[in-house]
Amino acid sequence: xxxxxxxxxADAARWFNLLENAFYPFPFPLSGLPLRRFHSLVRDRLMxxxxxxxxxxxxxxxxxxxxxxxxxxxxxAAAATGWLLSxxxxxxxxxxxxxxxxxxxxxxCQIASGLIGLAATSRVDIAHRAEVAKVATGTATVDVIERQxxxxxxxxxxxxxxxxxxxxxxxxxxxxxxxxxQYFGLTASAVVVAAWSPWLVPVLIVPALAVRAHAIxxxxxxxxxxxxxxxxxxxxxxxxxxxxxxxxxKEMRIFGLTEWAIGNHQLELHRHLDDEWTHNRTMVLAQWxxxxxxxxxxxxxxxxxxxATAVQGSPVGVASAALSAGWGIFTAIANHGETINxxxxxxxxxxxxxxxxxxxxxxxxxxxxxxxxxxxxLVRFVGVEFGYDERTPIMKGLDLEIRPGETLAVVxxxxxxxxxxxxxxxxxxxxxxxxxxxxxxxxxxxxxWNAKLAIVFQDFVKYHLTVAENISLGFPGPADPxxxxxxxEDAGFGDVVARLDAGADTPLDRSRDRxxxxxxxxxxxxxxxxxxxxxxRGAKILVLDEPTAHLDVRTEKALFDRLEGxxxxxxxxxxxxxxxxxxxxxxxxxxxxxxxxxxGTHAELTALGGDYAHMYRLQAERYKSGYDDRLEAGELR
Amino acid sequence: MKQLRAYARMHRELFAISLKREPxxxxxxxxxxxxxxxxxxxxxxxxxxxxxxxxxxxxxxxIIAAFLAALSFTLDRSISGVYYILQRELIxxxxxxxxxxxxxxxxxxxxxxxxxxxxxxxxxxxxxxxxAWAVIxxxxxxGEACSMALRLLLALAILGTTSPxxxxxxxCAAVQLILDRRGQAHEKQSELDLAEDKxxxxxxxxxxxxxxxxxxxxxxxxxxxxxxxxxxxADRARTTRLRGQFTGSLWRIxxxxxxxxxFTISIGLVIAxxxxxxxxxxxxxxxxxxxxxxxxxxxxAVSSAAGxxxxxxxxxxxxxxxxxxxxxxxxxxxxxxxxxxxxGIRLRNLHFTxxxxxxxxxxxxxxxxxxxxVVAVVGEYGSGKTTLMKLLAGLHRPSAGAIExxxxxxxxxxxxxxxxxxxxxxxxxxxxxTTFAEAIAIGDLRGGSAxxxxxxxxxxxxxxxxxxxxxxxxxxxxxxxxxxxxxxGQWQKVALARSCMRPAPLLFLLDEPTASLDAPSEQAVFxxxxxxxxxxxxxxxxxxxxxxxxxxxxxxxxxxxxxxxGRLIESGGHDALLSAGGTYAELYGIHAASYS
Lengths: 637, 596
Description:
The complex is a heterodimer of chains A (637) and B (596).
Chain A: H1 2-23, H2 34-50, H3 57-86, H4 93-137, H5 143-146, H6 148-157, H7 169-196, H8 200-228, H9 230-241, H10 246-255, H11 258-312, H12 316-334, H13 337-359, E1 379-389, E2 392-402, E3 407-412, H14 418-426, E4 433-438, E5 441-442, E6 453-456, H15 467-472, H16 481-490, H17 494-499, H18 520-536, E7 541-545, H19 553-566, E8 571-575, H20 579-582, E9 587-592, E10 595-600, H21 602-608, H22 611-636
Helix pairs in contact in A: 1-2, 2-7, 3-4, 3-7, 3-12, 4-7, 4-13, 6-13, 7-12, 7-13, 8-11, 8-12, 8-13, 9-11, 11-12, 16-18, 21-22
Chain B: H1 2-21, H2 23-55, H3 59-109, H4 119-128, H5 132-162, H6 169-193, H7 195-209, H8 211-220, H9 223-276, H10 281-328, E1 344-352, E2 362-370, E3 374-379, H11 385-392, E4 400-405, E5 408-409, H12 415-420, E6 422-425, H13 436-441, H14 450-459, H15 463-468, H16 488-499, E7 507-511, H17 519-540, E8 543-547, H18 551-554, E9 559-564, E10 567-572, H19 574-580, H20 583-593
Parallel strand pairs in B: 3-8, 3-9, 6-7, 7-8
Antiparallel strand pairs in B: 1-2, 1-4, 4-5, 9-10
């Protein structure tokens, strides 16, 4: 049923576009091959119509039925009025009821059309945004997502109706269907006019199409202006939202930054919209040209009908119907409101198509290899080179072996590439040179390599979902409540969760109903629980990127004590700059200048007297002196 | 009624703002509305004369009337086209140039931050984000509604003079309007009901598109689950909205039935007059034309009203914010912050409970922070340390008790002057997606010399970061606008440098200032901050308050406050606390042991 509809719709679109195209060039120079233009127009409209598959057959059927009735209604009303005027001397009940009934049906259709239109629009939009999110999360690496041009495309594709010139794909799809239906209305009105005289039909239709084409051209330019200024648009929205962000709000008060943010907002705003405002002058002027182009044929036809009827004494009813329907032709065709919806939504569809094209090749490759071992694999970084941009290399031929079951600590100065190492291991960035293997197979080719890893990122994600959901999202597949409970206990915040209103089902967002929020430390424990859950589900390598930065000492110590028991048989990689926490590691590597600079146990590295020893001494000094103080205080007593 | 007056006042104000911002466009928009109504009236009348002159076989009159009809049809259409363009420009200009800044100002300069932390407020703030255009749009919709009322009046005059029977249409139109309003109430309710699902939907969508969340989403393979939850939340929101719209539509259709009946009966009565010879065929044409157009007028009036209902989603929070900002704005005579501290800051039985929660976050804290001291606050998480900092900065108003600065209650002090004489960095520091230099320089908008910037960068140990930036100080930070990606620790250094820009703050708050830094950086930062604190302290008696889990940071403080469950359980110097053998000594023992 659905398929049948779409093929019919496609045919209809083709024919009506043929009609539109045939008249398109009239008062304007013909540019390009009309055939090519025709093809692209058909393809374009079909793209919009195809979106309606997301709305479902019932909604689409309703939309078509209601749309058809509304489209032909003005013609029917004109005919009914004519009929009524012809029956003035006799029994007028039937035509009168027809006139009144059509009025009611028209209004009912308008309301139903709004409701069904909303149903269709929202379904198409949800599907569109889901697709955008799917494409955005579908790439193996994130570097392509970070790129400015990708973010621009995502910004356009999301079809966020913050700006009122933007329309959603759903609105575009519904509009494409309504435009087709408009032509039914046009035909119906033409039939009523033709009842008076057929030669009036082309006199009205041709200029109406020309006016329509002209208006559409101007609107297209306007939308292009808007899309071109997207960068500025995003910036002024950013500044506009800043005073409402919790983190920045505190500093904005302390440093008095509100006026500064407003200044930036205004600057970007003008960069974006000044052109559009200039273009508005053109559009207003053009409106008068369109008025003239409509008035001349319409007045000609009206006068001809009035004159001929008055002179010949032909039936007034048919003439009146022709007058009403003549105007109906203009309203049916010169109405470009729906075209605005199409143009407004085009940008986001185009952006999605472009995103697909750009991100498709980046998609996860088919797995070429697997690793068999049940335990943790042997991971090797061989001559790995990497930089976020070409000018600043982070990794300059890094060689590192991570042995199964060992606890490896990675230390280094800020910006030495500790976090980058983790991202390379996770495969969310690909080395620009060298390679990373697990048991001899390139990690990029291993099926579900990420399922082997349980990573606590430094900037882990805070889902505004429940505690349990926050944890179960650490591993793909259905949630395992038992393992979630265990992960909460193991991460050491069972008592915190137990105190919550709804336990693990409490949403972690103050703005949600009965929701709460965690402190920095509690979130960090939750992130750890997320990784422990992944371990429970079968991950073999635990990676902790600064896992205790926000924890107090007691919790930190308890945590590391507990971890020791939990990570037996696992490979553990610990990135930390708090050196007290890395001392227990089997091996410590110090990253510097894109390579491993030092490697060994705590004792070995301290004895080596290099950077590690220096860092350690610095940190320890203060504690040591504190410790001495205590001894003195004790002696005094 | 009170609300109605508030709306009326707001629309008057907004109209005045538009007139001031764009006098020509504002007048043009109004003119479109008036001339549109006139064209509407002429259409009906000319159609009547066309029919009458055709019946009377008066060719000249028929031509004139037909031309007038064509002219008024076309003009009505063109005017609405021009109106559309003009009103858009007006909305853009007033919305973005006048209202956006006004909202930003209200949100950004309220003394406290409660409005960003509680659900009830947050909902409203979210509704307002970048939505100022809807506020001015609502005023234009009121203008449109007035123009529709004008059309109704003209219709009344024309119909009334043609045949009094035709006036029957008008009360029916009124019934329609009343029923429509009932329908709108259902729609409004459904919009409120779906707010939470909408928020979840937006949050998850945002995460999927973000690059920083992207790496974890990929490594955990969470994307399918997230998409599923996104879809579920979106569907719930959609169903709620449609249900509300459906109920609303039923009311509307009921209203239209009433109107259609009135329309049919009144035309029937006119035809009866025609048959008696007291009316003409033209009158029937007029009645049918005006009647049909009346349908459009009423439905446009309704859609303007519906649009206005839609904007209530924004108007309600807008009015709320204005009122809230008005109420919470400081009034009356305020004492300026002192030039220097002589006694210090005294906390008297300080209590604070977050709105919507029951357990106090800070409970009965009384302590003196002497002028010129470095104070460290320690405690396990959730013990109220950050809340205490926020109270000191005046970001929350104590529920009970007081903070006295050199004997002056903070609640009596001019909060802006107090803030401008302090500096701070918070655990959740701001990340400004602008240039490196600007992100730091905004720490002191009044001063900010190049030398001060250099000093601040050095104090935050951000020199090496600075030297590695591809475009130097002008490097754009964050990938959001095509800048460089910097790490958590590097963002923290930028925040730290920002907090060092003010030359001599009386109060310097450092909430976990080095949590994301490596050991040498931490050391360097801490040393320079200590030196700086001591130096400023001797000049102005300033107080530095540091929240930290790092005992290395804490041990050097003059006064250490140990917090637990919102209460102050121990306070004193490092040595005294160690010898007391309480919680502090225990925590310190664990820490020191890890380095021994």
